[in-house]
Amino acid sequence: MADNLIESGSEDEQSDIEVVIDHETECIEAILVQLHRPDLQPTRENIRLIARGVTELNLSFEDIHVLSDCINELQDLEVLGLDDNQLSELPDLNLPNLKKIVLNDNKFTSYPSALKQHNKIEVIYLYNNKITELPDDLNLPNLKVIVLVNNKLTSYPSALKQHNKIEEIWLRNNQITELPADTFENNLNLKELGLGSNPLGHVPSCLMHCTGLTWLALYKCKLTSVPEWFGKKLKNLDKLHLQCNPDLVELPNSIRFVKQAIINGNNKWREDHPDPDDMKLLEDCNRVDAMVDAACDRVWESQRILLTARPGPQAPSEDEDEDEVKVTPCHEVLFGGDEERQKSIMKLIVQYLI
Description:
Structural class: alpha/beta
Number of helices: 8
Oligomer: single chain
CATH class of the largest domain: Alpha Beta
CATH architecture of the largest domain: Alpha-Beta Horseshoe
Shape: elongated
Low-confidence stretches: 1-10, 13-20, 327-333
CATH topology of the largest domain: Leucine-rich repeat, LRR (right-handed beta-alpha superhelix)
Number of domains: 2
Distance between the termini: 83 Å
Order of helices and strands: HHHEEEEEEEEHEHHHH
Strand order of the largest sheet: 1-2-3-4-5-6-7-8-9
Helix content: 25-40%
């Protein structure tokens, strides 16, 4: 009957039907190859027969335009790789055990709504697509990692605020300009945050809530300054990237608390950019290192001044001999003297030591 339908239709209708059939068949063939059964006929029934126990499937670089819903036959599937294809949408998925899906380098312009019903998902990769926004609710209570690098986001996805299990958020190379003050209040387990190559223009104050961060990227963010609270709040950082912010010419004294994180970040940057053509990037690592050293030097010098501070000479009273030297009590070594002197020392303490 199907043959009769194709014969009785117009050429355009036949062409449309053939394209759909081709996509379906190509997808099934790719699945069978990856499951090491290319000998089987490309039918849904054969997919169903070999589906039991299949937990991982990699369909990357298969030039898939339309993913067949025959994928739902793989009910045990936990990891699905679909990167470097031509996908712009997903079929209605029913993969109850799915934990990780990789959709990098496709043609998505919106977040795949087919993922919403899969509450076991922990990891989503959507690198290098054209996604402009995420829905208000992802319905992914177990989400731990989301990669949205190289997309078209202009604002921080508010849906991510709800995920208290999330550990990694990667948003490099979008067009995000602002992060609301409450952005990370509920992300208590956040460890790694990539905000590089977004035109932020400043360090978002919401980062104060991210005291557990171990990795933070703020390179190419058009920063002009770093607030004093930064080093004090983010002491757990292991790697910090501040490169390629040409208008950032000085770092706060609190940066000493994350000095090693900057050294680690710069060393990692140098490892990742060994090409001589990247010389400007490497020079900027040296520039950031120099700013860190300058901030630390200011602190050390201030400590030296405070530790050697003494009250100025005091005029003898009428009944004292001018040649007598008045001994200053210990508690006055730093805080004795006139009011102006006390103010200047307190200023040093506030600016450089606290």
